[in-house]
Each structure stands twice: as C-alpha cells, then as structure tokens.
C-alpha cells in the first residue's frame, strides 16, 4: 500500500500533474487538430521521460561508474572542489552551510587528511549574490572536524570548474605542489579531470558523493515523474564535457 500511495502521489504533485494534464489535452486535441496534438504529445512525453527516476538514475550512473576511489594514494595535496553553499544560514561555529554534494566532498577530504596529513586546497567562491563563499565555509568546517588551520589553503575566486582548475594550478605552482588528489562528486569527476588536464595537471581522482548504488534495479516508482530526477544534473555534465573545447 505504501508504494501504491507513493505512485499515486507522484502523479498528483508537480511535475506529474502537469504531465497528466498535457497528455489529456493532447488526446482531446487529436480529434480536431491532429498535427498540433502530435506535437503536444511529443513534448509531453519528453517532459515525462526527463522527469522519471528510471532515466535520471541511469544517466547519472553512467557518469559515476567511470572512476573508483584508488586503493593507494600518491599525491602531495588534496584538492576539494566546492559545490554550492548558503551564506547566512545558522551553523554551529558561524554562518553558512555547504550544499549536500559539497558537504559530502568535505567529509571525504577530512577523512583523507586523517590518512595522509596532506595539505588541503579548497576551491570555490560565491557563485551568486545570495550564496556563500564556499572555500571559507569549508575551511571553518574542516577546522571543526580537526584539520589544522595551517593545513588548509582556500581559493575563493572560482565560479566554475575551469576556474577551479586554473586557480588551483596557480596555488600549486606557488607552493611547488605537483600531484593533486582531486576530490569531487563522482558524477562531476569526468568533467573535472578534463578541465584540470587542460590547465596542465594530472590528477589522482577520488570520487565521492555517489547519488546511486552501482547495482540499479527497476520498480514501479522509477516511472513516476518527480522534480528531483537526476536527468538535468547528468545532462549538464554531458553538455559541459561536449562543449569543453569551446570553453578553453
């Protein structure tokens, strides 16, 4: 009964309710305006396909499975990429929180520090006027987790992955560091590596923040539209990879 209820709710809440309405409208139009009805039906099906977890899960999984955490570490610095932050939300030791993805990256960076005691470069600025400076918030939280203040280097200017790579390279050159262990979300790793390679760095990838299990299973609720499908997230990564030559 629980899964039946979830299934029904999925079509009563956005975007499911709008997909049902558009589908009903396309059926109604078909009797009088067949060409317009066909166009509306195609648009509706496109919205439906992009909104269901079955598609989003497999798209994000195709990115996440490309790299696995290494068994042995050989770097001389840990590089953590930001992934979103609030500026003024209350926290234990100061204002501002990292987003879910960025927080998972931070936990991995802190745990890697405990294993290696390597310095950590945190790269990420304030992307929008109402978001926090990611590197500064991450530094505060890393200190809270026991990482010494003098082992954390902040890079606060980057607004995208290309700038992450270029600004991190400048810091590494200044500190004579050459072998970064790159910590970012598994779905974001492919695009990150390509940007860091273009900036002249060979990284050891350490993916984290996995969105899906490696073994995907289909069930009825995979086909219920939801606003939290990973389709958009995955398509953004694929688009970024495809257009990378144009960005450089």
UniProtKB/TrEMBL annotation:
<keyword id="KW-0472">Membrane</keyword>
<protein>
    <submittedName>
        <fullName>YdcF family protein</fullName>
    </submittedName>
</protein>
<feature type="transmembrane region" description="Helical">
    <location>
        <begin position="7"/>
        <end position="29"/>
    </location>
</feature>
<keyword id="KW-1133">Transmembrane helix</keyword>
<dbReference type="InterPro" id="IPR051599">
    <property type="entry name" value="Cell_Envelope_Assoc"/>
</dbReference>
<feature type="transmembrane region" description="Helical">
    <location>
        <begin position="35"/>
        <end position="56"/>
    </location>
</feature>
<dbReference type="InterPro" id="IPR003848">
    <property type="entry name" value="DUF218"/>
</dbReference>
<keyword id="KW-0812">Transmembrane</keyword>
<dbReference type="InterPro" id="IPR014729">
    <property type="entry name" value="Rossmann-like_a/b/a_fold"/>
</dbReference>
<feature type="domain" description="DUF218">
    <location>
        <begin position="76"/>
        <end position="240"/>
    </location>
</feature>
<dbReference type="Pfam" id="PF02698">
    <property type="entry name" value="DUF218"/>
</dbReference>
């Amino acid at each position: 009964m629980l899964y039946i209820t979830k299934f029904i709710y999925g079509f009563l809440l956005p975007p499911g309710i709008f997909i049902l309405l558009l589908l009903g409208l396309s059926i109604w139009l078909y009797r009088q305006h067949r060409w317009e009805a066909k166009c509306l039906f195609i648009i509706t099906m496109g919205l439906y396909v992009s909104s269901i977890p079955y598609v989003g899960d497999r798209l994000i999984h195709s990115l996440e499975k490309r790299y696995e955490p290494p068994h042995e570490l050989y770097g001389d610095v840990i590089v953590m990429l930001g992934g979103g932050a609030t500026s003024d939300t209350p926290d234990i030791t100061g204002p501002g929180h990292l987003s879910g993805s960025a927080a998972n990256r931070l936990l991995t960076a802190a745990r890697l520090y405990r294993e290696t005691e390597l310095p950590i470069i945190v790269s990420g600025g304030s992307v929008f006027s109402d978001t926090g400076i990611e590197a500064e918030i991450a530094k505060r939280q890393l200190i809270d987790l026991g990482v010494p203040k003098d082992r954390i280097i902040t890079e606060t200017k980057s607004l995208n992955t290309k700038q992450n790579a270029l600004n991190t390279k400048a810091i590494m050159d200044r500190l004579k560091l050459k072998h970064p262990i790159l910590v970012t979300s598994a779905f974001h790793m492919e695009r990150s590596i390509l940007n860091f390679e273009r900036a002249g760095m060979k990284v050891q990838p350490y993916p984290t923040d996995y969105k899906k299990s490696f073994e995907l299973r289909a069930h009825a609720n995979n086909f219920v539209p939801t606003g939290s499908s990973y389709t958009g997230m995955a398509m953004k990564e694929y688009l970024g990879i495809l257009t990378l030559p144009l960005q450089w």
